[in-house]
């Protein structure tokens, strides 16, 4: 039987055990330290040496050991993200924006869900320590987010919450109160006088603030608030309850688009016309809002842009290091009113306009 020695295939070394940094150094005829400097992007290396090392890396199919690299550079090039949920269009858009920004900077994401629970938030954070350079924490509870930032210690953390006062921490927050007032004022401007609110989950910070903004903007009516949980099914149930009232509302402000869409479906099933009989306005401007019929008037939050800004804020903190200039700013996102068919008069239904006085992100 003829036994031959495996040869290089397609310019690469034959398959064998994984190459080490010493193998790369030996093939490139340089020191291990020189290989390390090339892989870490150091400028203190000649171009010819860099070329030999990179050729050796390609030939040997060498993959740097992330753990060893992080020990020498104190960086993992990985960002941790803790969200209350991973389901739904809002979180899908948020992660999309984060991923685009991370890839643009050569970073990776580790995403975990806390399910809105404080203990799970802390457990997710502890599981990521040592594996990430910094954390983005979005929690529906301000206490949980601040507690997570405390537990993180010296690791940079950016909070993405509903509160405008994040105790002097780097954060991004939506102006939920101002946006809710804008929603009610828009409905009143279209002639609606009995405005109901489908609120988000009980105990959720953003839901609480949006409900407060709704109530503060009412004129000559008592608040009509029905509980929800940010899901389409909750919006459908809430609208069914509103239809059973002795005095049916002529407008509904839902705390997010998915509940608004669920409410519109319930009205359609009951033969109640939107916007002729009842106007509906949502919050977020998820992609589906412009696709349903009637199209949904909403408060636009550029969700993907929020995700991008969160990642870029965090990368800035990581690069600055513990001795960098402190960043304790709370960046405010001001939603934009987008008028569509669901709040229009019957003769103008079909148009889409953007309120030029609103302030975008």
TrEMBL record:
The keyword Transcription applies. SUPFAM superfamilies: lambda repressor-like DNA-binding domains, Periplasmic binding protein-like I. Keywords: DNA-binding, Repressor, Transcription, Transcription regulation. It comes from the Bacteria. InterPro entries: HTH_LacI, LacI/GalR-like_sensor, Lambda_DNA-bd_dom_sf, Peripla_BP_I. Residues 19-73 form the HTH lacI-type domain. One of its GO terms (molecular function) is transcription cis-regulatory region binding. It holds the Pfam family LacI. This is LacI family transcriptional regulator. It comes from Brevundimonas aurantiaca.
